[in-house]
Amino acid sequence: MPDDTVVTVAAGWGVLAAVLLCALAVFAVALDAVLSARAQGAGGGWAAPLSRAARLLRQRRRTTVAADTLLWRAGGAGMFVGAFLMVAVIPLGRWTLSDLSVGVVWFNAVDVMVWALVWLVGWGANSTHSLVGGYRFLAHGLAYELPLMFALVAPAIAAGSLRVADVAAAQDDLWFVVWMPVAFVVYLIGVMGFSVWGPFAPALASDIAGGVLAELSGVDRLVFLAGRYMFLAAGAAFSVPLFLGGGAGPVLPGWAWVLVKTVAVLAVLVWLRRKVPLMRPDRFMEIGWILLLPAAVVQDLVVSLIVVWEG
Amino acid sequence: MLIGIVFWVLAVVAVAAGVAVFVADSMARATYALAVSFIAVGVQILLLQQSYLGLITILMMVMEMAVMAVYMVMFMGMNPALMPMDMTHGKKTAIGASVGAFVLLAGGALLIPWPQRRGEPPDELTHALGLEIMGEKMLVMAVIGPVMVATIVAGVVLAAGRTRYDRFGDDLHRRPGDDPQSGGVGR
After folding, report:
1. pLDDT of residue B18
2. A-chain residues within 8 Å CB-CB of B128?
3. What are the structural domain ranges in chain B?
4. Distance, in angstroms, between A174 CA and closest chain B CA?
5. Which residue has better confidence, B143 or A311?
6. Using a CB-CB distance cutoff of 8 angstroms, which residues of chain A are in contact with residue B33?
7. Is the CB of B183 less than 8 angstroms away from the CB of A116?
8. What band does A1 get if pLDDT is binned at 50, 70 and 90?
9. Which of B28, B67, B181 sits opposite A282 (nearest CB)?
10. Cα A228 to Cα A211: distance, rounded to the nearest angstrom
């Protein structure tokens, strides 16, 4: 077992955290492109992050009539910045940027920001399709957010702390994923939700001409899409201290295990996009409230009972 | 020093964003100006080292403003929400009431003889606050919670135009129910 004490590193190391997050996002883009290419019987795709970014950087910015530019740009830039805020509380082995006593709530507050950000991007363009996309996302949000919140509660109850490092340290004996699998699954659904990913992509779907993305072009589109992949990566990274034992593992040091587990979860999330159908917001509303929410609450109850039982 | 600067910057942002709510001519800008104002207040609470309350304030307010955007389109007929519009109405009453309330509260804050601090804050502030709020009143809270939920459910049931007879037929035997919007579980 690695040492449980967590060291708060100087803020300058945030640059390294940002670089790691960007690298994870690039990996997610590349993996998605490779899987797409393979599904169509072609090879390659690993260069996709580079070629797509280069294309978007060269693209001219599209303007629309009476666009609310302030809110439009704020939404896109917020997606990019938000993911960095999220990783600030994730310990990398025994180092963390911020050993916040309520790190789990911090994560939750940042993921709720996405509600506002995606809607703002949809609103800003003054385009019907964009706005419909924004509202589709909000409808999804209403369905996935509460189950996600109750899924976050389970590890916090078991650890008796909202500090992310404490939650990771509480899994010395047994990873939380083993005895709270429902919370883990609901959490991953929530991560796909706030990343507008996989089944939650109708906000960006082609039946409404790209939805929120419809009028986004050039660097604005690049920033929004990068933010989306980074949120997916940050969500995968947060699952490691929350459910997967943090930096626990044989041979390798803690930081390496955190990265290995993050990459594994991220790869599964990227792979799932092609395996799970798009969820219509009206349909998913009932799944969220009638299946996922009670399941998460029962999971919390079971965890609470076990915690009380073991005293 | 640094905390002082942050405090004043946040204070100015909070008030300026609050003013922007009434100056903006767009419902979206007014909504999110209010969100920015609340976020600034939430960070102020973080400065008071009440991390949980500060973050919860930010979380709740951002979510609330996003939900407000839903209501904006649901309940505003002919969607004026999507067009430029004046954010104020009943101006004289509103200005009178708000100036009066401000003078009362600010005057009270300045003139009241504040007591001296007794004792030291406990280490786990949030924990102590929770005990202070809930300790004595746990039973009341435990009762009020279900009553509130029951009230909400009853309110929705009374307000809804459709009843279970519309869903399940006159003898309540029709399955799955006849819903205007079919859900994903197939009830």
Report:
1. 92
2. none
3. 1-83, 133-179
4. 27
5. B143
6. none
7. no
8. very low
9. B181
10. 15
Q: Read off the pLDDT of residues B119-135 as tens digits, 9 standing for 90 and up.
A: 887 777 777 878 887 77
C-alpha distance from B100 to closest chain A C-alpha (Å): 34
Chain B 129-168, CB below 8 Å of chain A: which residues? none
Q: Rounded distance, CA A76 to CA A93, Å?
A: 31
CA-nearest residue to B51 within chain A is: A102
State both tokens at A91.
Answer: 């310990």
Range from A48-62, A150-164, A286-300, B79-93 carrying the lowest mean pLDDT: B79-93
Which H or E run contains A303? Answer: helix A293-309
Chain A residue numbers touching B59 (CB-CB < 8 A): 105, 108-109, 112
Q: How is residue A279 annotated by DSSP?
A: P
- The token pair at A274 is 């092609």
Which residue is listed with tokens 């906000």? A203
| Residue B141: HSE in the Cβ half-sphere, 13 Å Cα cutoff | 9
- The predicted model gives A20-28 an average pLDDT of 92
Per-residue pLDDT, averaged over A112-135, amounts to: 90
Instruction: Please choose, from the candidates A100, A114, A86, the residue with its C-alpha nearest in 3D space to the C-alpha of residue A240.
Output: A86
CB atoms within 10 A of CB B35: 23
Question: Closest Cα partner for A97 from A83, A81, A86?
Answer: A86
- Distance of residue B119 Cα from the nearest chain A Cα, in angstroms: 24
Q: What is the mean pLDDT of residues A244-266?
A: 87
ipTM associated with this complex: 0.84
Nearest CA-CA partner of A36 in A22, A50, A48: A48
DSSP B163-176: -HHHHH-TTS--SS
* Average pLDDT score over residue span A241-259: 86
Which residues of chain B have a pLDDT value below 70?
A: 73-82
Asked whether residue A2 carries a pLDDT value surpassing 70, the answer given is no
Query: Quick one: tokens of A209?
Result: 């001409």
Mean pLDDT of chain A: 89
Mind telling me how many Å the CA of B111 is from chain A's nearest CA? 36
Q: Say yes or no: B63 contacts chain A, CB-CB below 8 A.
A: yes
**Using the beta-carbon criterion (under 8 Å), do B187 and A290 form an inter-chain contact?**
yes
What's the pLDDT at B73? Answer: 67
CB contact under 8 A, A285 and B183: yes
Asked if B58 and A109 come within 8 Å (Cβ–Cβ), the reply is yes
Contacts of B126 in chain A (CB under 8 A): 101-102
**Quick one: pLDDT at residue A272?**
92
Q: Do A105 and B52 touch (CB under 8 A)?
A: yes
